[in-house]
Write a structure and sequence with these properties.
This protein folds into 2 domains: 276 residues, Glycogen Phosphorylase B (Rossmann fold, 3-Layer(aba) Sandwich); 161 residues, Glycogen Phosphorylase B (Rossmann fold). Helix content is 41%, strand content 13%. It has 17 helices and 13 strands. The strands form 2 sheets. The chain has a 7-stranded parallel sheet, with helices on both faces. The chain has a 6-stranded parallel sheet with strand order 10-9-8-11-12-13, sandwiched between helices. The two termini are 34 Å apart. Pathway: Pigment biosynthesis; anthocyanin biosynthesis. InterPro entries: UDP_glucos_trans (IPR002213), UDP_glycos_trans_CS (IPR035595).
């Protein structure tokens, strides 16, 4: 899916936006895509994140530099600058970064100081006019940054890259606690469903965005992150959302400041990719029949235990279809690299599939040989999948992925859900059966193609998302 660049602005406008997010793939990627989309419209952008991402992001931006369009004869990257603050973590310290609670605590401890100092320095009286920050865009997980923006007299926007119903879920937290549906730590106390939108399925007690099965401490931290962001949704100048209006026509009306601006896609620009992509999978896809390949990826953080990893591998072999499987080195702590190598050789020997450590996902999903996407239902993966018209096979792991699964299967009807057995295992037979069912389900494929067409319309000139982003840029300079 390649969107037209006809709306790329040849003239810079008098606005300098500071974009902030957590140093994690699922947050860096959509905010970086937003940065370049704003640059298309003439906005100067500084992307500020933690130093532990520097090696990966600098490398990716260098790889993509030659593919970027030229504007008024000058280099495109001048409008997007990436700056890193010291965090005490190295990009190779994976063990410490895997401890989500400690990682978040460290980043949140050091980040506010550096955000405030950066703005102070940029906005000194002697600074050039175009260097001065005029607006802060904070990823929802760092919504607290808008306190700093407000204190310094700057406009502020919340950026949310999740399903449309999530805003409604967050706004209802005070009511959910008051009504005794959840307790003060986010734990469900009643099983009743909560209506989030007339266009989307009701929220069940298993679908809360802070749901981390078997990880009580992480659930508490996640709930506090979400709960603390709720007031900023109500008070920010804008709430920018990575979805498009047709996914939930009521979502833009939840708050007067809500603007749907998605789907945010890279289109060969830097996309905040913190992993090295194996491009050989694209030539492998070229050799497969149209609509035949099962693409499998659990994103940047999804993990499997040894038993489940083996069961998935056996399921992919059992189905007898070509597959492209993303297997990160840390996808399973118990699986030795030799096991991964064995799976890879066995797949290649039988020409059944290909295993890579990381894939250029947008290009993969846009490839005509891909027939379905077995996904963890992370929103970035989901919005890319539905924007390319690919039917989805849902295997959610944590957080908002459970509600995204509900939207995919019961709301938009563009996918099917894998069901675990009584031991909580997704068996090889379940995987094969659901893949077979998904690939022959004409109704789901038709719905997926319809959602793709609506995505294209939203991004086209005069489309809802294009107009909303143009409105945001116009209001920046008021």
């Amino acid at each position: 899916m390649n969107c037209s660049l006809s709306n790329v602005s040849g003239t810079a406008i008098n606005a300098h936006v500071l974009i902030l997010t957590l140093p994690a793939q699922g947050h860096v990627a959509p905010t970086m895509k937003l940065a370049y989309r704003l640059a298309d419209l003439g906005v100067r952008v500084t992307f500020l994140t933690a130093e532990c991402t520097s090696d990966q992001l600098v490398s990716e931006q260098s790889r993509n530099k030659d593919a970027l369009p030229k504007i008024q004869g000058g280099p495109y990257p001048e409008r997007v600058k990436t700056v890193f603050f010291p965090d005490g973590l190295k990009s190779t310290e994976l063990d410490e970064r895997r401890d989500t609670v400690k990682f978040l605590e460290r980043i949140v401890k050091v980040m506010p100081y550096h955000v405030e100092e950066f703005i102070k320095k940029a906005n000194q009286p002697e600074s050039e006019k175009d260097e001065k920050i005029t607006c802060v865009i904070a990823d929802f997980v760092v919504a607290w940054a808008l306190e700093i923006a407000n204190k310094m007299g700057l406009k502020g926007a919340i950026f949310l890259s999740s399903a449309p119903g999530i805003v409604s879920m967050v706004l209802q937290i005070p009511h959910l606690i008051e009504a005794g549906i959840i307790d003060a730590e986010g734990t469900p106390k009643k099983t009743e469903k909560v209506m989030l939108s007339p266009y989307l399925p009701a929220l069940s007690s298993d679908d809360y965005v802070w749901n981390f099965p078997g990880q009580k401490e992480l659930q508490k931290v996640g709930f506090e992150f979400v709960r603390s962001g709720e007031p900023f949704l109500r008070t920010s100048n804008w709430v920018l959302c990575n979805w498009y209006r047709d996914l939930d026509p009521s979502a833009d009306g939840l708050l007067p400041t809500t603007l749907s601006i998605g789907p945010l896609l890279a289109n060969d620009r830097p996309s905040g990719n913190m992993f090295s992509e194996d491009l050989t999978c694209l030539s492998w896809l070229d050799r497969q029949p149209p609509g035949s390949v099962v693409y499998v990826s659990f994103g940047s953080t999804g993990t499997l235990n040894s038993h489940q990893f083996d069961e998935l591998a056996l399921g992919l072999q059992l189905m007898g279809r070509p597959f492209l499987w993303v297997v990160r080195p840390d996808i399973s702590h118990e699986v030795a690299s030799a096991t991964v190598g064995l799976r890879n050789r066995r797949a290649d020997d039988h020409q059944l599939g290909k295993i890579v450590q990381w894939a250029p996902q947008e290009k993969v999903l846009a490839h005509p040989s891909v027939g379905c996407f077995l996904t963890h239902c992370g929103w970035n993966s989901t919005v890319e999948g539905i924007s390319m018209g690919v039917p989805l096979l849902c295997w959610p792991h944590t957080g908002d992925q459970f509600y995204v699964r509900t939207c995919i299967c019961d709301g938009w009807k563009v996918g099917l859900e894998l069901k675990p057995n009584e031991d909580g295992i997704f068996t090889r037979h379940e995987i094969k059966s659901k893949v077979d069912e998904l690939l022959i389900n004409g109704g789901i494929r038709e719905n997926a193609l319809k959602i793709k067409r609506l995505a294209l319309m939203s991004l086209s000139k005069g489309g809802s998302s294009s107009k909303n982003l143009e409105q945001f840029v116009a209001e920046l300079v008021l």
